[in-house]
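S1.2 Input.
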Amino acid sequence: MNKKLTLIWRITFLSLLPMLLVTGLFVANSQEEDEDRHENPEARQRLRVMQRLDNNGQIAFGALVKAKEETDRLSQLQHQNPRFDAGLWNWQWLGPGNIGGRIRSILFDRVFTLWMWAGSVGGGIWRTTDGGYSWNPVDDFMANLAVTSLAGDPLNINVMYASTGEGFNNIDALQGAGVFKSTDRGSTWRQLPFTNNVNFQWVNRIAHNPLLSNMLLAATANTGIWRTTDGGATWVSVLTPPAPSTDVKFAPNTSNIALAATGLPPAGQNSDVYYSNTGGLTWNELTTGAAGMLPNNTGRCEVAFGPPGVMYVSMDRNNGELWRSIDGGATWEFRNTGTSYLSVQGWYANALWVSPVDGNFIVVGGLDLYRSTDGGMNLQKISRWQGELDGSSPHADQHVIVAHPGFGGTNGTVFFGNDGGIYATNDVSTVSQDAGWIPRNNGLGVTQFYGGAAAPGGSIIVGGAQDNDKLHYSPANGTNWLHPTTGDGGFAAVDYINPNILYGEYTNLEIRRSDNGGVSYSTRISGLSDAQNGATSLFISPFSMDPNVPAVLVAGGTSIWRTQDNADNWSAIRGPVPGLPGAGSPACSAIDIAHGNGTIIWVGYANGRVSRSSWSPASGWSWTDVDGLIPDRYVTDIAINPFNTDEVFVTIGGYNFDDVWMTTNAGQTWQNRSGTGINYLPAVQVNTVRYNPQNENWVYVGTDLGVFGSEDKGLHWSILRRYGTNEGPANVAVDELFWQGSEYLIAATHGRGMYRARIPFDIFVDLNNPLPGDGTAANPFHSLLNGVNTLVNGTTLHINTGTYPEAPLTFNKRGQIITTNGTVTIR
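S1.3 Output.
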């Protein structure tokens, strides 16, 4: 076995972001768990960073954007060449349309107040034209979907800006790509070239001057506050604080006054709040600790303006401190602490809003939301995250609060963005923990899945999602998914004989089972000592169902575990493997079990180790390391050929040109299968790999830029977008690919829910069908051209009798053509 990189990664996102230290697996959360704490955003994001490290333990700046640019270039080159997409076409979005996902920005249209835009940190920009009762995505294929903030020009309704890259010390799945601009009212977006550099890779907030066009401020996590006066064509650095900048805002109805704030500082530094009366050109520190000023060492701060002269700061100190100024920032007074309104995660979720008509009326939020009518002296809890399951209260983790443009008088409407999407109340003065809340997530498809599974007939599809745990789809309910539990969910499995039996995962390998089709779950970890242990299991740990016996499952921590009784009892079939000195034993990160022989199990680890099992009655389980020349990076997935157990694909993490590997001899030798010629994969993170269950030559990978297919086991990959905006599933991270039976490939995305594509082996055409058709036997294509364009190598084209006036046509794929019910004429 080749030597492994030590599993001590020191990841510094430039000099200003705090160091994340991962030793062995990852350290436990340094703060005490609150009794209401239902998730661990810090551990969750450390895992996603770990998955994407290169050979040097880094994530190169702009890697995702460069991969997108390379994808677009290759698509143009492939346009006149044969396609190798292995039947990928016509993606169908499955939802969830009722769950939502993390929203950090909401922007109202200034003219049509039923129009709003929302920015998801993994799913891009969405628009509603009916006040949030329905949503649609805009510009699926913009270069980056990690949207953190939105702003509009006050004098030109067509001009809008979006910042990307979430740098609130949690470093989510996607790096940022600077600031984007729209000049057509948010329909299309282009990256501002000046911001395509390391200075703008984590832009937490942007703020537009409320009175002047083209003037914006940007708060970046690594290089401080930037200012533009020419609509983003050029920017000037105006403030470089010692801690990551997390917030910046202009005072309403003035072009000069602004506040800026910073977040969790590096060791030995303080977080700060700054004031400007020059439109952001110069700044004065307010957190000096002097009498009448703000204290220093504040933790992450959020700032907000009220009526003229009124300002507030919410600090991540003592689980939440409120400070207020009523003289335009000249002096400050302490208003509240001890309420713990931020819980223990104010560094991650910290939202603050002040009524524009009443400077004493505020709402603050961390885990939940609190209201004050006396300037923060007393806080009343108005939400409880447990109530999200029945719709009586908002989801947890509050990030943004925005009032309706007509707020005041009889209009008390306020919108809230959190980890569960968008919620609203029509009267913020009376809304309570269990009454007055309206979910506004219908069609807001930004759920962040880690994995999923489907019953062979499609009667149920289940997935584990960030902060939404185990969700499931049924055809009768469409995009409205069942949401029985909350928290972070992981991988999933469905019993392929009895689909009422489902399996899901809570964090750190806590396996749970449902015997009633996902209505409820119970924990099943008897004997599984790696479960619920952040020192011996990954935050999202792998488990897999045996394709030969559904009662058998295999799960991975530092040990490999197996159950033969539907997860009632577990036993170890492999103990911890040694790591390099100081690194500890690596944790399992990927598992696959062979079709036809459940004793052949392949496992991958977070340090790049790959092993396969064998079993005999005499000696029991034995393991062989087989990773050979595969680079020593995080193993993201493994796929055993369903027709030949000696042939296996392994994918590894990092934005590199060598993320896909194949062996034909059970790991004795390996080949890089990342493509050749103009049909190679760009240097993009590859998260998952699957064989087609009907054709062993067809292979698919899910990446941080969607799904790619190959018809020759990775020698050539298709990048050409054959179906325009419906090629799917957008430029979004696909965490897992899995099959519904042998016909539908499903993509579990981390930011756009789930998509499904029917992989056609038989395509049907009938000119007598009055509908355009979808190529199925029940609804054949009306046009022969559609049938020909859908052909891939190995498919069969069934043409019903008739005369098709569509010549000339080019048939350039290997396969069969079958005519039915008589003669077919093409002219």
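S1.4 Remarks. The two ends are 62 Å apart (CA to CA).
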